[in-house]
Specification:
mainly alpha
């Protein structure tokens, strides 16, 4: 079975877009919490909240974000969408693993979130790129 074509430039741009989007969503979560839900605390309190909420934000929003980016890839490169979306996920996962391994302190609590989030993001990218689209079946006339 031949490998699907990959547009590496588009995969790299999509990876950067995914990283920026996930970081922006985490920042937005902390901003909403600090300005509307629990106001008047110290900067250290909100830093601790950011570290505690970031894995949850990634887990809950990763699938929809990767689905939408996969759809964007599918619109840009229909014939190479699945391969490009999987390359984008691979690049994103490589960055996440490097950050995870270089993160100071104990990261054992974040490991289940990282694994679960990776599975959800992979599914989102795959579905968004059309990985579940029905294939045309050639039929022979008998």
């Amino acid at each position: 079975m031949p490998h699907p074509p990959i547009r590496w430039g588009l995969a790299a741009v999509a990876t950067i877009f995914a990283e920026v989007t996930m970081i922006a969503l985490s920042i937005a979560c902390v901003a909403v919490y600090s300005y509307t839900i629990h106001t008047g605390e110290t900067q250290e309190f909100y830093n601790a909240f950011a570290q505690a909420s970031a894995p949850w934000v990634s887990l809950l929003t990763g699938g929809p974000v990767f689905f939408l980016i996969g759809r964007w890839i599918r619109r840009r490169a229909p014939s190479a969408a699945l391969g490009t979306a999987m390359a984008m996920f691979g690049l994103y996962l490589a960055i996440e693993i490097i950050v995870f391994l270089l993160w100071p302190g104990d990261t054992s609590g974040a490991l289940p979130f990282m694994i679960g989030g990776a599975i959800i993001k992979l599914a989102g990218a795959w579905l968004g790129a059309g990985g579940s689209a029905p294939r045309a079946v050639a039929s022979r006339a008998i």
